[in-house]
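User: Predict the structure for this protein chain, please.
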Amino acid sequence: MKLGILGGTMLAKTLGKKYLEAGLSVVFGVRNDFDTESHDWKMLNLVRNRICPFESAIIQSEIILICCDNKYLVEVCAALKNVDLDGKFIVDCTNANYDKVLANSNTQLISKAAPKAILFKAFNNLGIDYPNSDFLGIIKETYYCGDSELEKIRIKRLIELIGFRAIDAGKMDNAPLLEAFYHLSKEISWNKKEHSSYHFKLVSA
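Assistant: Here is the predicted structure, written as C-alpha cells:
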C-alpha cells in the first residue's frame, strides 16, 4: 500500500515520518514552487525521490492524506480532478477557515473535486502546525468519520498504526463538527491570551 501525503506543512511532514517509520511506502505531493531544499524535506527526499507535484503523488497512491494549507486547497482539488480516483481513499486532515455557521467546509470542496473517491476525515484535530501545537505530546487520539462502514476499518487501522487512538465520529455529515472542535480549541487558546494550546480529550464512562 502506498500513501500519498499532500501539502508542505508540519503535519504532512510529521505524519509522513511516522508512516515511514511504521514501514509504509510514502510519497509527498507539494506545490510547484515549494522549497524542497530545507533540511527536513531534503532528508525525506534523500534516499528516494519521495517529493513530487500534487498530481503525481495522487496517481501513485492508494490512500491520500490532504494536509495542505487552506490557501493551496484549490490547487490540490484541481489536481484531484485531473486523476482517475475510482477506488482511491482520500482522508481530509484539514480545517476550513473559522465560520460560526459551519457552512463552509474543506471537505465539501474535496468531495466535489473527487466524487469517485472514498472520502474520510481524520487527524484534523492535530492542526497543520502539529507537532508544534502539542510540544508536550499529550494528543493521543483523533476522531474520524466516513460513510463506508466496511472501509472505515482500514482507516481505523491506518490511524492506530502510528500510535493514535481512533475514535469513530460517524458519517461524513459530521465532518463540520470535527472542524468545530478544532476551532473551539483555538478560540479558547486565543481568549486565554496564552502561548499554550488547548486540546479536547474524550472521556468515556
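The first strand starts at residue 2 and ends at 6.
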